[in-house]
Design brief:
Distance between the termini: 39 Å
Shape: globular
Helix content: under 10%
Radius of gyration: 13 Å
Strand content: 35-45%
Number of helices: 0
Length: 128
């Protein structure tokens, strides 16, 4: 069973930075593209960033591009999301997903295309 554990969520003010982490088990981490999703209460979960198996060619949703950076350490089976210049609209629960392919397909934003069970997520809250 493929499992993930997200961490690093916190209470932040607008303009601050935060780094989220995601560790995986039950899968050959380096063989799969990985993605970050987020969900606000009452709204659907949405993909915000994806990274290829080897850490190249990151892609971002327009809402976070230029402010967030996705990266991975295949030796540690860990995915990261560096979030800078945070806005109130970034407040959400953040989840990571293991994709079934090694690259980020056009459908990467869809939360249905992942291998793992959803973790508890990392809560990012706005303290402004």
């Amino acid at each position: 069973q493929v499992q993930v554990v997200e961490s690093g969520g916190d209470l932040v003010q607008a303009g601050e930075s935060l780094r989220l982490s995601c560790t995986t088990s039950g899968v050959r981490f380096g063989d799969h593209a990985m993605a970050w999703f987020r969900q606000v209460a009452g709204k659907e979960r949405e993909g915000i960033s994806c990274i290829k198996d080897d850490g190249s060619i990151p892609v971002y949703d327009s809402s976070v591009e230029g402010r967030f950076a996705i990266s991975r350490d295949n030796d540690k089976n860990t995915l990261y999301l560096e979030m800078n210049s945070l806005k109130s609209s970034d407040a959400a629960i953040y989840y990571c997903g293991v994709l079934s392919v090694y690259f980020c397909p056009n459908r990467w934003r869809r939360p249905t295309g992942i291998l793992n069970s959803w973790g508890q997520g990392a809560q990012v809250s706005d303290s402004s």
